[in-house]
Each structure stands twice: as structure tokens, then as C-alpha cells.
């Protein structure tokens, strides 16, 4: 009988994330001698209520800025606000010592937006729905 059990779940408990994140972070820190990982959020808020309307979240680690999520509601798109948010995100990455940035988007989301802002495709993988793909992009900072 195997003394270990493999468990599959569609819920990621905070304690599970903590064990995996702490273990991987400790390994990376031991190998590199560097612990510069830090979360980053750049948001747009309603000044009257303070409510977050959209923005960007991600992190930096080992001189690389990761853009993980970027959302603006339809009513705020096309006004230049997205480019301003992205620039603020990139500027903060530079301030933190990042020399490159990376993200992935979906082909039906915003690859053209990122390209207009100086990002370059370095990979693409087909996904569902048919005809769609994940587009991997990077930018030198």
C-alpha cells in the first residue's frame, strides 16, 4: 500500500497555496540567493466611492515583471486609460529593477493592444474554442 495519497480538487484552499508557494519560494531563494518577489496591482478607482473599476495585477521576481490579469469594463476601453495603466505597471516594474516583462493573452482578447504598446509575440498555442490561441508576449523594459 502506498503511504502517500494523490488528491485532485477543483478548489485551491489557501493552505494548499501556502505550502506550494512557500516550498517553491524557499527552493528558488536557496538556488539564486535572491528574494525579490513582490505582488503588484495598478488599478483605476471611482474617486467618489473608492470602488475598483478595473486594472492590472501581477508580480515581479528575479528581474522579470509578470502581468497576470488585466481588465477594464467596456465603458472605459478605447479612451487611452488602458495604455496609461499599462505604462504605470511597466514603470513600476522598472522602478523595482525589472528588465523584461512577460504575459499571455487570448487571441480574442487584446494581443493588438499589447503590440501597440511595444510588446512582442514570442509564442502561440492553439486552445478552445477552435481557432483561438494563447498568445505569449514579452517586452524589454
UniProtKB/TrEMBL annotation:
Pfam families: Acetyltransf_1. Residues 6-141 form the N-acetyltransferase domain. InterPro entries: Acyl_CoA_acyltransferase, GNAT_dom. Gene3D superfamilies: 3.40.630.30. This is GNAT family N-acetyltransferase.
Amino acid at each position: 500500500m502506498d503511504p502517500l495519497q494523490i488528491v485532485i480538487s477543483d478548489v485551491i484552499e489557501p493552505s494548499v497555496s501556502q505550502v506550494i508557494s512557500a516550498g517553491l519560494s524557499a527552493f528558488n531563494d536557496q538556488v539564486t540567493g535572491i528574494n525579490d518577489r513582490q505582488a503588484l496591482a495598478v488599478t483605476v478607482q471611482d474617486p467618489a466611492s473608492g470602488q475598483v473599476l478595473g486594472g492590472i495585477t501581477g508580480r515581479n521576481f528575479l528581474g522579470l515583471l509578470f502581468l497576470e490579469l488585466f481588465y477594464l469594463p467596456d465603458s472605459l476601453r478605447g479612451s487611452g486609460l488602458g495604455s496609461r495603466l499599462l505604462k504605470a505597471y511597466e514603470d513600476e516594474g522598472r522602478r523595482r529593477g525589472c528588465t523584461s516583462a512577460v504575459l499571455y493573452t487570448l487571441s480574442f482578447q487584446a494581443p493588438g493592444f499589447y503590440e501597440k504598446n511595444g510588446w512582442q509575440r514570442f509564442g502561440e498555442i492553439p486552445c478552445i474554442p477552435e481557432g483561438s490561441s494563447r498568445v505569449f508576449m514579452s517586452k524589454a523594459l
